[in-house]
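Run log // design_07
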């Protein structure tokens, strides 16, 4: 989804100024309810709302199995997930403590240091491997998004299971793209132990933790990760790599899953 804005463009070589309309990515609130109880509002590109809600709830550890869900219903700006059994209100209160997650980041200070110190207790033990050439081909999918091509103002993520594209999502928030493709994978009942996640956004600790909760063994980003992401990937057993301009791949953790042959 996009919006049209009037803009003046200056050619930096000729200094010629022109005026015209530019397509701009939009964001809108998506309110998540569990058993009719409000949990949180995500500011996101208003597409794949059901998948966004399911992915977020799984990535936050609120729901751990598709069998726990009884009903999934979306309206214009809300998604309500009904579960077979009640969810502890304390769990919902903790994950929704900030109540509004912007398109930037929703990680609290205590949660950040908990991840860095290895207190999350998550471990990805998959022996899934893949070649560099296949990773390069998969990463090219990120450039095919229609919203990205028209606005250049969104993040993109793609989830592959055994080299087969499972989910593709564009969003103004890099966290939202991960939640969306994870939601697609959950609803498709895929085997996350044989998946590779490709993302346009940088990978700090909370982004890596989303993959760790789903047992995704390999993350490849077009953006260089930061220290917290590398530490988190090391502790959780995830292979974290950065593909730089389709020319070099930097593998920061658990190198053995990416093959050169």
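design_07 sequence
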């Amino acid at each position: 989804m996009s919006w049209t804005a009037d803009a003046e463009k200056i050619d930096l070589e000729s200094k010629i100024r022109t005026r015209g309309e530019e397509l701009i990515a939009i964001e809108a609130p998506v309110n998540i309810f569990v058993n009719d109880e409000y949990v949180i509002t995500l500011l996101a590109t208003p597409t794949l709302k059901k998948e966004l809600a399911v992915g977020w709830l799984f990535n936050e550890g609120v729901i751990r199995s598709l069998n726990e869900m009884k009903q999934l219903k979306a309206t214009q700006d809300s998604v309500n997930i009904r579960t077979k059994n009640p969810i502890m209100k304390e769990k919902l209160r903790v994950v929704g403590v900030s109540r509004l997650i912007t398109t930037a980041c929703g990680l609290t200070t205590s949660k950040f240091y908990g991840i860095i110190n290895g207190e999350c207790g998550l471990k990805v033990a998959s022996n899934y491997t893949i070649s560099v050439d296949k990773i390069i081909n998969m990463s090219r999918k990120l450039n095919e998004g229609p919203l990205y091509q028209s606005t250049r103002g969104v993040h993109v993520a793609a989830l592959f299971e055994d080299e087969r594209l499972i989910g593709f999502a564009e969003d103004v928030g890099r966290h939202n793209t991960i939640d969306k493709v994870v939601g697609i994978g959950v609803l498709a009942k895929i085997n996350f132990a044989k998946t590779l996640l490709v993302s346009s956004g940088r990978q700090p600790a909370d982004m890596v933790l989303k993959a760790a909760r789903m047992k995704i063994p390999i993350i490849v980003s077009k953006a260089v990760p930061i220290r917290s992401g590398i530490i988190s990937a090391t502790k959780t057993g995830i292979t974290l790599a950065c593909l730089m301009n389709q020319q070099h791949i930097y593998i920061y953790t658990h190198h053995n899953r990416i093959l050169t042959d």
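The longest strand covers residues 2-10.
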